[in-house]
Every structure is written in structure tokens, then in C-alpha cells.
Design brief:
The protein is mainly α. It has one domain: Cobalamin adenosyltransferase-like (Hypothetical Protein Ta1238, Chain: A, Up-down Bundle), CATH 1.20.1200. It is built from five helices and four strands, in the order E-E-H-H-H-E-H-H-E. A two-stranded antiparallel ribbon has the order 1-2. A hairpin with a 5-residue loop joins strand 1 and strand 2. Helix 3 runs parallel beside helix 5. The chain is globular. The N and C termini lie far apart (58 Å).
């Protein structure tokens, strides 16, 4: 269990920080960037949570988002701690395939009653849908950063963490559609909508 007594330590004043295994690295490290992006994504989910009503369908969305926030802390902890060559199974907190499978079930449940799309969706609609789209885009960036980490340090990075991030972005897209469903539906992209120089 984490026990915090002091908020500032001055340790990072010279541009370095400590990973979960005690290794000291520059704050510009690709690994620090990856788990930092996950932290940012989690904060974006928090903004979506506060847009949810407490009851009904939005209450159900809120419960899912709160659960995902817990998992995203797992993802951050996982990426913060490189996999050691001698790491024993279960010794460190690692994202598991079961977490992704559970998320896929949630996606399927919310997606079941949505109408098929015939165009791409623009971020917007209700305040909740807009917040979910912003969170989705932020998670996508975290996924890209984590993917870059895997490319740089494949043996030291848990691929399941990246897979989980991918599913979170899918979930947030579906939830944004659910949030808009009762308010007139999605805002759809019209290719060339503002062009006057030819067919769209």
C-alpha cells in the first residue's frame, strides 16, 4: 500500500526521477513520457466522470469510467516499472489480458443498441460526449507513447498494457455515442462540407 507523508521531495529538481524499480532516469525518458501520458489520460477521464449524472444511463457510464480509472493507475504503475530479466510472475503489478477481456464485454454491452454509422463522428454533441471524445483522444496519445516504449524497450515493457489502452479508447468512443443517443445522435462528418469548388 502506498503511504505518502511528504508531497515535495526536491528529488526531481535536477530533471531526474525514479522508476518503480528504483532506477533513476531523466524526466525526458521515453518511459517517463509513456506513463505520464497515461496519467494525463486518467485526468481526462476524471473530467468526463464529473459530467455524468448519478443515475440512469449516465450513472452506468460513470461507474464504468471510475473502474477504468483504477485500471489506468495499474497501467501507469506497470509502465513505470521495467520488466527485469529475473522478474518472477506475480512479483510486480502488471496489466493482464483478463482486464482487456472484461473491457471488451463492457464495450459490447453498450454498443449493442447503437445504430450503425455511415460516416465518421465529430467530437461534440452533449457536454458528456465532448468530454468522452477528449478523453478518447488523450488515451490514443498515451497508447502511441506506450507503443513507442515497446519499440524501444520490448523486453522490459508489458505489451498487455498497450492493448488495454487501445480498448479504453474504443470504449470511450462507444460511450460518447451512448451519451449522444438520447440527445439527437452523433455529430457526423460531412466530407468537404465547407468547400465551394466542386463536388463533395
Amino acid at each position: 500500500m502506498v503511504h505518502l507523508t511528504r508531497i515535495y521531495t526536491r528529488f526531481g529538481d535536477d530533471g531526474e526521477c525514479m522508476l518503480g524499480d528504483g532506477t533513476v532516469v531523466p524526466k525526458t525518458s521515453i518511459r517517463v513520457g509513456a506513463y505520464g501520458a497515461v496519467d494525463e489520460a486518467n485526468a481526462a477521464l476524471g473530467m468526463a466522470v464529473v459530467e455524468c449524472a448519478a443515475e440512469g444511463e449516465e450513472g452506468a457510464i460513470r461507474a464504468v469510467l471510475l473502474s477504468v480509472q483504477q485500471d489506468l493507475f495499474d497501467v501507469g504503475a506497470d509502465l513505470c516499472t521495467p520488466i527485469g530479466a529475473d522478474e518472477q510472475p506475480g512479483k510486480r503489478l502488471r496489466v493482464s489480458p483478463e482486464q482487456t477481456t472484461r473491457l471488451e464485454g463492457v464495450i459490447d454491452r453498450f454498443n449493442a443498441d447503437l445504430k450503425p454509422l455511415n460516416s465518421f463522428v465529430l467530437p461534440g454533441g452533449t457536454r458528456l460526449a465532448a468530454a468522452l471524445h477528449l478523453a478518447r483522444a488523450t488515451v490514443r496519445r498515451a497508447e502511441r507513447d506506450a507503443t513507442a516504449l515497446i519499440a524501444a524497450e520490448p523486453a522490459a515493457t508489458n505489451r498487455h498494457a498497450v492493448v488495454y489502452l487501445n480498448r479504453v479508447s474504443d470504449l470511450l468512443f462507444v460511450l460518447s455515442r451512448v451519451a449522444n443517443a438520447s440527445a439527437g445522435g452523433d455529430v457526423l462528418w460531412v466530407p468537404g462540407a465547407n468547400r465551394t469548388d466542386g463536388p463533395r
